[in-house]
Amino acid sequence: MSGTSLDAIDAALVGVGDSISLLGTVEHPIPAATKADIARISTPGDDEIELMGRLDRTVGTLFADATLSLLEKTNTAPSAVTAIGSHGQTIRHRPASSGPPPELAFTLQIGDPNTIAKRTGITTVADFRRRDIASGGEGAPLAPAFHAAVFSQPTRNRAIVNIGGIANATIMEGSALKGGFDTGPGNTLLDHWIQQHKGSHYDRDGGWSAEGAPQQELLDALLSDPYFSRTGPRSTGKEQFHLQWLESALNDLDDIEPQDVQATLAELTAQSIALGIASAEVKIDEVYVCGGGALNTDLMRRLYQHLPDATLHTTAALGVDPQWVEAAAFAWLASRSLNNLSGNAPVVTGASDYEVLGGIYPGGTT
């Protein structure tokens, strides 16, 4: 798994059966030059096809190397692994909810699965999102089906909140999956703002945002974006929530101290998550957070304030380290694909049908 934040490639070794078990993990670095190229290809520009072709192979090699590093760390033979589930690196996400007619909606992830399968000798399942798009869905989020399978509890109403670059929420009423959607920016604006002003890759523990004070006028301007009033299936990405979007709001206001902008962005993430959960109209008893945002003390404090009627934990309380839930989800999705089982949830994505997701790329020949 490599997400919007581009902090690293998360590789998890997962046992999949009636339950899941996390057997090993590794964070594999992404070279700075590759990060820069991914950032460049993620917005319209010149010579995109040439750059995409090269990056597709480069990222595929990195994913393969992450797998081999994990196998070495866990002393696991490639022959012991049934398959690699590879999410790929998203470089463009244009679902129907963002404007195009459904027949022109698309999502694009790179990280050539042929390269992964050849380099590792392990069957690789990839390109999970486009079958859901073809079925009229958003192609995202895909993790809610996994969350429901692993984290639901018959007598409790739970929300699973993943705070990566973009945040998403899964809504469960007992054992029933009632919905799931992107709530808006998670860490992406926080990361980019602190990079611009302090040169740090991220705001460790939310220390900088905790120093500032949220500015209500800026917060109101950001929350006025139509995305936050949408209901039903919806997804978004850095195509919508980026520094230029933030700066367009700042340009209409008096100067605000950088740390106060950071505090406002943390408040935006917390409030938009709480608004999203409320929009599902299911009384939530318990909220469990995963993703990098689960490690942000200031962000968790703000979430606690905006979710007073529910208990707040990380998914560690459910037995899965919050940093590895999303990587485990794509191992589970790969298992579903190999067994010809659906991986999407139409109630989440809006797809017309349950679909078997992804393409299967065989590993070693016999």
Please report the number of helical segments: 13
Helix percentage range: 25-40%
DSSP strand content:
15-25%
Q: How would you characterize the largest beta sheet?
A: 5 strands, mixed
The residue-averaged pLDDT reads 96
Structure, described:
- Helices cover 39% and strands 19% of the residues.
- It has a five-stranded mixed β-sheet, with helices on both faces. Strands 3-6-12 form a three-stranded mixed β-sheet, sandwiched between helices.
- Helix 6 packs antiparallel against helix 10, helix 8 packs across helix 10 and helix 10 crosses helix 11.
What is the gist of this entry?
This protein is α/β, with parallel strands linked by helices and 366 residues long. It has 13 helices and twelve strands.
